[in-house]
Amino acid sequence: MVESILSWCAFLLYIAACAAAFFYLLTKNARASRFMLTLIGCGLAAHLPTFGIRLAAFWAYPENRWFLPVNNFFGALSYMSFALAAAFYTIEVRRRLGILGAFVLPMVALSLGLAVLLADPALAPLGPRLRSYWLNIHPMVLMTSYAAFTNAFGVALALLIQERQIKSRKPSELCYRLPSLDELDALNGSIIAVTLPILVVGLVMGSVWAYQASGRAWSWDPKETMSLITAAFYAEFLWLRYVCGKRGRIPVYVSMAGFACMLLTFFGAELCSGHHGFLGGK
Amino acid sequence: MKLVCLSWSHRDHACAAREALSSVPVERVLLELKARGFTEAAVLSTCNRFELYAAGSPDQAPRAAALIDALEELAGIPLGEKAEVRDDGAAVDHLFSVASGLDSLVVGEVEILGQVKSGYEKAKIAGMTDKRLNVLFQRALFVGKKVRTETALAAGSLSVPSVAVQLAETIFGRLEGKSVLIFGAGAMAELAAKHLAERGVSKLAVANRTWERAYQLAARYQGEAVKWEAFPAELERADVVISSTGAPNVVLTHSIVHAAVRRRGGRSLFLIDIAMPRDIEESVHKIDGVYLYRLEDLEAIVAKNMASRAQAVAAARRIVDAKTSEFVAWAKSLSTGRERSFKHSENPQ
Questions:
Q1: Exposed, middle or buried by CB within 10 Å (0-12, 13-18, 19+), for B336?
Q2: Where does residue B206 fall: left (phi above 0), alpha (psi -120 to 50 degrees), or beta otherwise?
Q3: ipTM for the predicted complex
Q4: What is the pTM for the complete model shown?
Q5: Do A249 and B288 touch (CB under 8 A)?
């Protein structure tokens, strides 16, 4: 009950932060920007205790003790949204690029919104196959990389808009408000360059876990396949951007394709995946 | 509140009074007023205006005529006729408008804010400010900044070279460490070079068909003259290229630019063509990471900026009006003994 109320509070605060971010983007009102930061801060503060409460409820089942409750959609989405907001706070705000809030915060709100509106928060004992210390590492590492990629996607959106504005030769007011093309390009590239190894490490951990559990390191189930394609797209982006030195829209589109695959990995592959279902590990 | 403002501004086209006043050092004016028993006064003296703000005791305003007398003695010519005299609320409103750039010849210009600040600092050094003028000028600076950050009054540049610099900043961010290549050594190229040099570009290279002129222009901005034949190699290193040669044909063709881009490792290239006839082939704009702006593109942006400044005047006016009544209410509250406070959290970034 308390968990649900706090989650809703955090959700509404994130929505309000989005509204403030858009207001800042349109009016450049400095108060809106500070208000946005306060709202994210409050949202994170309301959000954080829900994990503690959830953990306590999860651990009420003795077999779940010491494992993290990331085996269902609610827990995963809620964690994603928290990680995304925290990543935005540390990456963009530190670099004084808070104006990118309008591109990133909607995804924070959407992620938590899906959790509170659609996902089932009910907890259940873990199936025996999931009771491994890997459960605390493998999904957490991957979801952290997803949160960082989502930030990169927000930056890429801003980058495309900025590139289009400058190519059009008729830049609008927005063009002068957004960070410069080179800053956005460097940020997009560096987030992906740091995050891709994290994704790969997460995948390797998964295959080690699978090998220990079933003797097969890779079973080509849809989620595994999609995650490999995700990694391939991001690697292709880094190749195009830094090895071939390509600029403009094409590398950005490739990184966005990576993001689309990441979404499919997270949501789509769910429907037809065996041991990767968020259903307690059949 | 007892405040008087005398001003001689650009609205007075016969500028003899302004000229005479601007030749008197501000410090001298302040000393003279102090000697005559005025306690609080500040002077704003720029090439477009001369303004004197004076505050009296809580129940008595300084006499405008006495102030004009003092100034006439210093300037040595009669000034009274041309002076615009404002008091209390109107004076506050005027100072806030001035600081916001609403009263400037080029609406929204930024220099005036610094000039208001330096006028205030001189008065402070001369010991001619007390609580009311201190708060008045600090509020004026605050309002000036607020108007500039929250409205489009100062947004967008109003000249072709400064628009070019602004565009370069939307591509590269800070221009420090960037290098600029100039083709042709004409007046327009020089103006653009001057603007870019002010923004701290690290390297300036000039290529011209006549070596001497390239050398002279480069020398003026601590740049480097390069041989005309060597420009394709220079193109690899440059971030911003300004072209204004008198050449009858295209100088930078698609193939030259394309070849240079391939060796640039994905860095953006900003090309500005202000020559007539054109120096740079139009199709280079299609290359990824290359942005070509022509003179008419820059002029169109200037025209748009002018229009949007005109539209922002109303919004700026609203801020000035609101802040004026806030200040007047504060000044009134001083005499009742229960001083109101300004919201100090409201500082523009």
A1: exposed
A2: beta
A3: 0.85
A4: 0.78
A5: yes
